[in-house]
Fold this sequence. Notes:
It contains 14 helices and seven strands. The protein is an alpha/beta fold. The two termini are 35 Å apart. Bound molecules: S-adenosylmethionine. This is S-adenosyl-L-methionine-dependent methyltransferase. Keywords: Methyltransferase, Transferase.
Amino acid sequence: MNNIMSNHENGIPEDNKPWPELKLPELLLNSGTVRSLHAAIESEWDLLRRSACQTAAGRALWKQAINDPLAELFAGETHLKSIYEKIKKDLLNNAREISGVILAIRTLWFDSKLEAALSSFDGGGAQVVLLGAGMDARSYRLSCLKQSSVFEVDFPEVLDAKATILEAAANSKDKNHHPILTAKSLSRVAADLTEDNWLEKLQISGFEPKKSAVWILEGILYYLSHSHAMKVLKIIAENCNLTDTVLLADFMNKQATTLSSSTFHFYCDWPDQLLPSLGFFDVKLSQIGDPDAHFGLLQDPLNLFNKLRNLPRSIQTHPDDGTPCGRLYLLQASGSPNQTSS
Length: 342
Ligand SMILES: C[S@@+](CC[C@H](N)C(=O)[O-])C[C@H]1O[C@@H](n2cnc3c(N)ncnc32)[C@H](O)[C@@H]1O
């Protein structure tokens, strides 16, 4: 697990420069293919698909916490600059929370829970499915995947763009960006999660329903409608009737989706009740700032996340200023044929 506390006291790198000036990688600057691809992404893709690059930009800018050398290539210049400017402003204003910190913590939380889940399966080697994989580079950066077949599910154009960037990186002189697969294997599954055939496409790509699996739903459920999100969760729950399963997913509460009601749809205020109702057990809910969702990245004890954690979850607006209590819940849950059939 990449735990910044082991290298840097309280999240500040040893040289006391938490945010070095943004320098675009040579490959991004010099490769016509990668630059024109990102130009096309910006002009042709909708917000939903572009969120893949935006998320990668967050990981690229939080490089003192997340080791993801491919993130800047996947993000592209526009998204890198946009998040960099926000971080710069936050630092100037001595903000209690720096832009992108949720994303950094979320990434590290999924990394650590994935590693723990894989080691909990006898002999390792569980399959790993990333739904709405976007520009996730776990298959190239996590050694815990060395015995796992990984499946990345996303829209075809997102996966095609990812493959093109990886090919450009592999062919470049810049060895820092050469992608080296750390997973046993990687299959890209072009599918729309709102259609009925994505599970079938996953199986055609080699996913074995009877072999243990870890499902990663990171930054995806709230982009779906309520009925589509519930259908996806039910399909995974049904698969638990066949094999031992771990589900890792993040959920927005209702107030969080009001931040952009045109982008975010599905919400759940009590995912720790929803998942057991679908047949999952051992459900654990974490909030940003909890001991397992902190990673030394929240310096100021008065930060917003600590305030939220100290309020009952049923409270919808901050008592101090009446602003919405938007929360991101991080959930881990188990499924098993023995448990779900009982
Ligand atoms: C915010 S990004 C998160 C990407 C990745 N999980 C990560 O954390 O870096 C959301 C991703 O979900 C994908 N997505 C959204 N709706 C989808 C759908 N109906 N079918 C397949 N992928 C979808 C988008 O294309 C995008 O790549």
